[in-house]
Amino acid sequence: MLINLSTTIALSCPACGRLEKDEINIFELPVGKLKQLSCSCGAEKASIKRIDNSRLQLNYFCLHCNKAHKIKVSNHKFWYSKKLISLSCRETGLNPGFFGRSALVNEEIKKEKQELELIAAELGFDEFKNPDVMLQALDFIHDIAEEGALSCECSNDIINIELFSDKIQLICNDCGARLNIAAVNENDLKRLRQLNKVCIHSIQGKPNNF
User: How many domains does the chain have?
Assistant: First the structure.
């Protein structure tokens, strides 16, 4: 009888931000063995270990807070869950990744990609210096806003967005303060993803640059 029990982990790299998948087979995890997961850029993303015959421990580095998180899950939940399990950031509430059956992981990644492509089409992303970086930056800012962590120092949390070829400008709907966020390369994304909140403030009425 052929046994092919596996789980796929999709996790964004804390160094470059890429979301990559790793398929873990049960035979790769004998009890007590630590398996390391690395990004194609070379950065370490996570490690996983079977504590005993009933539990696993997953350690993962989070690009949102730049810290390591740790969770323990049952063997049954890790190998047999019929839904995706999110890997959350305790600092920000955002999710740097998830794991589950390969088909579910692929479906979720495809869904997210289609949603981003739809946004890109609506916004006319051909005009940007790096459309992919701009799209990922917008997606991250959207997540920050959903967590209630996007605001202005004047206490207003209604923020408008204006897009330029190389940056995102956040504008306070109340006082008019502005914050420019560069969105051209991977370093811009890395700096942005280290934030767990965004607060706009102005210097002598001029836009502030992040």
Answer: 2
